[in-house]
TrEMBL record:
Family of the protein in this entry: Belongs to the D-isomer specific 2-hydroxyacid dehydrogenase family.
Molecular function terms from GO: (S)-2-hydroxyglutarate dehydrogenase activity; NAD binding; phosphoglycerate dehydrogenase activity
Pfam family, one: 2-Hacid_dh_C
Keyword NAD: yes
Chain ranges of the D-isomer specific 2-hydroxyacid dehydrogenase NAD-binding domain: 113-283
Keywords: Amino-acid biosynthesis, NAD, Oxidoreductase
Protein name from the UniProt record: Hydroxyacid dehydrogenase
Annotated D-isomer specific 2-hydroxyacid dehydrogenase catalytic domain residues: 15-301
TM region(s), chain numbering: none
Organism the protein comes from: Pseudanabaena frigida
Length: 312
């Protein structure tokens, strides 16, 4: 019996009609037994010779993993990023990799704005203080008075900019494609230095690639305005967390909010700083977005299975 592996930490198979249809056609569905991001050796254990397709999370799908999965023909990512997949190896082995590019946009954009607001108004700090018995209102800043630099102006970056505009904030975007007609409706720059110099808040919306490793390092941070804020709801590895820590301790940055980390689960020294909001990679974890993402991932898997004649 052919198998389909769902390696995400959770997935609502029962209410997914596409997967129910595939089960009716004789496919056995194998779930992630650990309820968390899988390690490479755990993926290897689950990708046995009977697995022909998978709905993938953010676990490492390395060349070693892909070459060991002798029957694997399809990878359908439940999400937008592919940095955990060795795309060169997948292409060499003829394994298509599909993503769900639209489902996460609203969820990640809304979370980003909530992180910006919480950092500006210091609500997380105040909540912690109150729970520890300290009644002390904290002075914050107005979002309407800020200039927000949006680094990466794809679907999510554009949605963030739209939401910020409703608050009265000014946005300026940086993207390597800023000269294209797509960006005619916004202030967009091909000069990263210009954006860093003008912005009180920097929010990141770029993919992780080897070239973008520690894109936000000491040089980047030093060019940010004194007292500014950094928000990362994109990908871990983009930010040099040690450089960020140093900038926060020195006071060069007033605060930061991170949803993603270079190593997850995160256990580093940023946890010791009160002016930092740290949450466990939950950008797409809105019920409606998650349902759409799972439906799209299952449909992508089904379409590929039909293409190669394994489903109908």
């Amino acid at each position: 019996m052919p198998k389909l592996l769902i390696s995400t930490s959770s997935f609502d198979v029962k209410n997914n009609q596409v997967l129910q249809n595939l089960q009716d056609q004789g496919f056995e569905i194998v779930l992630n037994p650990h309820g968390r991001k899988l390690k490479e050796e755990e993926v290897l254990e689950l990708l046995n010779d009977d697995v022909v397709g998978m709905i993938a999370g953010v676990e490492p799908l390395t060349r070693n993993v892909l070459s060991s999965a002798k029957s694997l023909k399809i990878i359908s990512r439940c999400g937008i990023g592919t940095d955990a997949v060795d795309l060169v190896a997948a292409e060499e082995m003829g394994i298509p990799v599909d993503i769900t590019p639209t489902a996460t946009v609203i969820a990640v954009a809304e979370l980003t704005v909530s992180l910006i607001l919480s950092t500006l108004r210091r609500t997380f700090e105040a909540s912690r203080n109150l729970r520890q018995g300290e009644w002390k209102p904290l002075m914050g800043r107005l979002l309407a008075s800020q200039v927000v630099g949006v680094i990466g102006y794809g679907r999510i970056g554009r949605r963030v900019s739209t939401l910020l505009g409703a608050f009265g904030a000014q946005t300026i975007a940086y993207d390597i494609f800023c000269g294209d007609s797509l960006f005619a409706d916004t202030v967009c720059s091909t000069s990263l230095d210009e954006v860093l110099e003008k912005s009180n808040i920097i929010t990141l919306h770029i993919p992780y690639t080897p070239e973008n490793h520690h894109f936000v390092g000491s040089s980047f941070i030093n060019k940010m305005k004194p007292g500014s804020i950094l928000v990362n709801a994109a990908r871990g590895g983009i930010v040099d967390e040690d450089a960020l820590y140093d900038a926060l301790v020195s006071g060069h940055l007033a605060g930061a909010a991170l949803d993603t980390f270079e190593q997850e689960p995160y256990s580093g020294k940023l946890l010791t700083l009160q002016q930092v909001i740290l949450i466990p990679h939950m950008g797409s974890y809105a019920k409606e977005a998650r349902m759409q993402m799972e439906q799209e991932a299952a449909q992508n898997l089904f379409n590929r299975l039909v293409e190669i004649g394994l489903a109908k």
